[in-house]
Write a structure and sequence with these properties.
Radius of gyration: 21 Å
CATH class of the largest domain: Alpha Beta
Catalytic activity: L-glutamyl-[protein] + S-adenosyl-L-methionine = [protein]-L-glutamate 5-O-methyl ester + S-adenosyl-L-homocysteine
Distance between the termini: 57 Å
Strand order of the largest sheet: 6-2-1-7-8-10-9
Low-confidence stretches: none
Mean pLDDT: 90
EC number: 2.1.1.80
Order of helices and strands: HHHHHHEHEHEHEEHEEHEEE
Protein name: protein-glutamate O-methyltransferase
Pfam families: CheR, CheR_N
Number of helices: 11
Helix content: 40-55%
Keywords: Methyltransferase, S-adenosyl-L-methionine, Transferase
CATH topology of the largest domain: Rossmann fold
Largest sheet: 7 strands, mixed
Structural class: alpha/beta
Length: 279
């Protein structure tokens, strides 16, 4: 049964938005009330509840915290991404970072973290770029860790199935090389080839956790278009947490609309939104 649309009170919005900020770092200002109301309407329908008060009571109950929080945060988070988004970053990776890495006489694995990987387009793009370098320049033993807060998009990333529209902008030679068409022509979908999928490991991670449950000593971290949803104080805290996982001299990428201006973080800027860890 689909329930008719109900309104969220200012009290319930404040209660939910404060919780979302405290637990997940996402700042929902009062102008986002209608957006939150609209997205959570799906959960009211699914749970057959007729008010947001009932929903809040459930979310903050012991049972709700165990069963509902993942559903709620999946609806609250914004997950917009594309293959080869902000291509200058991948050019910098190919032309500077990878040659620098291979020039080092100490042979070791290259460790990359896609922090806020959404449905997988970023880590799979990284895998394609590195694989192309390996074939044309020099082999590299590399691994990519990819994390996100949303279990919904992580499941999509692990499955690695995308509509043909999602890959339309990728050069034809790369599409032929790294994507498999569905055997059912009516589906109009493609899937990342197995050997590329095997290079990426996925896991759920909340940047608000006191300690981030992920390995350290990454050579490269991509955290693009993620901290834009946090306020300035939270952005600085998150970047410092991420930097704790980066080797001195490692590289850190932000999204094109993000900045570290005015922050106390161990990064020096090399190019717009490209940084190096300095200590």
């Amino acid at each position: 049964m689909v329930l008719s649309h109900v309104k969220m009170s200012s009290y319930d919005f404040t209660k939910l938005s404060n919780f979302i900020y405290d637990e997940y770092g996402i700042k929902l200002t009062p102008v986002k009330k209608t957006m939150l109301e609209s997205r959570l309407q799906k959960r009211l329908n699914a749970l057959q509840m007729d008010s947001y008060k009932d929903y809040c009571d459930f979310v903050f109950s012991t049972q709700g915290r165990q069963q509902e929080l993942i559903h709620m945060i999946d609806l609250v988070t914004t997950n917009k991404t594309d293959f080869f988004r902000e291509p200058a970053h991948f050019d910098f990776l190919t032309n500077q970072i990878l040659p620098e890495f291979t020039s080092n006489t100490l042979i070791r694995p290259l460790k990359i973290w896609s922090a806020g990987c959404s449905s997988g387009e970023e880590p799979y793009t990284l895998a394609m770029v590195i694989n192309e370098f390996c074939e044309s320049q020099q082999p590299i033993n590399y691994s990519i860790s990819a994390t996100d807060l949303s279990t919904h998009v992580l499941n999509k990333a692990i499955t690695a199935v995308y509509s043909e529209e999602r890959v339309a902008g990728i050069p034809l030679q790369l599409k032929r090389k790294y994507f498999l068409k569905s055997k059912d022509p009516s589906k109009k979908t493609v899937r990342i080839v197995p050997y590329l999928r095997n290079r990426v490991s996925f896991g759920r991670l909340n940047f608000m956790d006191d300690s981030l449950d992920i390995a350290s000593d990454f050579d490269i971290v991509f955290c693009r278009n993620v901290i834009i949803y946090f306020d300035k104080i939270t952005q600085e805290k998150v970047i410092n947490k991420l930097c704790d996982k980066v080797k001195p001299g490692g590289y850190f990428f932000l999204g094109h609309s993000e900045s570290i201006t005015g922050m106390q973080v161990p990064l020096e800027q090399l190019k717009p939104t490209v940084f190096k860890k300095i200590r």
